Amino acid sequence: MSPAALMIVEDDADISEALAEALEDHGHTVIVAADGQEALDKLRAAAVLPRLILLDLMMPVMDGWQFRAAQRQDANLAEIPVVLLSAHVDVRRAAGELGAIAWLRKPVDLQALLAIVTRPDDA
Q1: 77-107, pLDDT tens digit by residue?
Q2: What are the structural domains, with CATH classification, of the chain?
Q3: Using 50, 70 and 90 to split pLDDT, how confident is the model at 1?
Q4: Are 82 and 36 in contact (CB under 8 A)?
Q5: Residue 119 and residue 63: Cα distance in Å, rounded?
Q6: Burial 64-97 (b: 16+ CB within 10 A, else e)
Q7: Based on C-alpha coordinates, what's the Rg of the chain?
């Protein structure tokens, strides 16, 4: 993973592919995981961690809540900022509970996403 990499954790392959392509078209390096467990495995094996995680909430195997709990308990991963991308009915509340730096409701507005991922301080 490059130092400027973004990680997308999304179980819908069409959504993750579209997001990855759009972000790559705007100069970002993207790593994709299909669920929280795959994301943890990739993060723990990475030589360099991504600067931001774009996280879906509702996924099989390990959902966004479970992933975020595991991420926060891992000292090497806890400081990576998270942006929620979800169709969850109360994504704003979930973002607050999970300590996400931002949230976007699906379908994701590309301009809003680009504004978040290009912030210099990711906050």
Answers
A1: 999 999 999 988 888 999 999 999 999 999 9
A2: 6-117 (3.40.50.2300)
A3: very low
A4: no
A5: 26
A6: bbbbbebbeeeeebeebbbbbbbebeebeebbee
A7: 13
